[in-house]
Amino acid sequence: MKIVTYNVNGIKARLPRLIEYLVEEQPDIVCLQELKSSDDTFPITDIEAVGYGAVWHGQKAWNGVAILAKSGTPVVRQRGLEGEPEDEHSRYVEAEIDGLIVAALYLPNGNPQPGPKFDYKLRWMDRLADRARVLLAEEKPAILAGDYNVIANDDDTFSVRAMQDDALMQPESREHYRALVAQGWTDALRTQFPKGGVWTFWDYQAGAWQRDAGFRIDHLLLSPQAADRMIDAGVDKAYRGREKASDHAPTWVRLR
């Protein structure tokens, strides 16, 4: 079973690339982020046409997450995170697929920092941690998949110096991410590549793709029951180099 997280950076603009990926790679489950699409404009007809069911939590022009499944329509468990009722950002959707709990998440960027956006990022991470504890308590195979907007380690970026003032790499961001993992989650890509040096994102600016000046911010965290089934993990890097591609590459884990 191949489970993918993929920030598409606008599902309408990237729909040909997404359909291409689904047809060519045939992943079992795909978690999408940054849809930039309202609920009623999500392209479900196109997705169903290539054999996938879907659930989504959209927002016009911003944010938005979805879960696609080849086995049929996922069963929604939750949209959004508790703890901040006034938060209208569409950044979390959770579903069950063939006994596997899957959450697609799009964590706030947090820039500029310090400031309100960075404060919101840390509060959102606290709320995610609360939900993660609930999922672990269920003692079922579960995956928290998405764009975390956190560079967890120095070897997860092409340049520590270039990113040192960015919200993605602040000590508070890292501490929150590491505390989440320490609950008992397994960082699939980190486990597969313990020395780092694997990127999932390359900016459109300054020839970042051509220079391979990327960093790793797309993560798949596995509950102990899912980690026991892990076979492999990686990045489908070539898809970042295609015409009008997202600035993220599909990132995946394979489970027995």
TrEMBL record:
EC nos: 3.1.11.2
Pfam families with a match to the protein in the record: Exo_endo_phos
Cofactor(s) needed by this chain: Mg(2+)
Classification via PROSITE patterns: AP_NUCLEASE_F1_1 (PS00726), AP_NUCLEASE_F1_4 (PS51435)
Cited InterPro entries: AP_endonuc_1 (IPR004808), AP_endonuclease_F1_BS (IPR020847), Endo/exonu/phosph_ase_sf (IPR036691), Endo/exonuclease/phosphatase (IPR005135), ExoIII-like (IPR037493)
The entry's keywords: Hydrolase, Magnesium, Metal-binding
Residue span, Endonuclease/exonuclease/phosphatase domain: 4-248
Main enzyme class: hydrolase
Molecular functions (GO terms): double-stranded DNA 3'-5' DNA exonuclease activity
Recorded family membership: Belongs to the DNA repair enzymes AP/ExoA family.
Protein name: Exodeoxyribonuclease III
Gene designation: xth
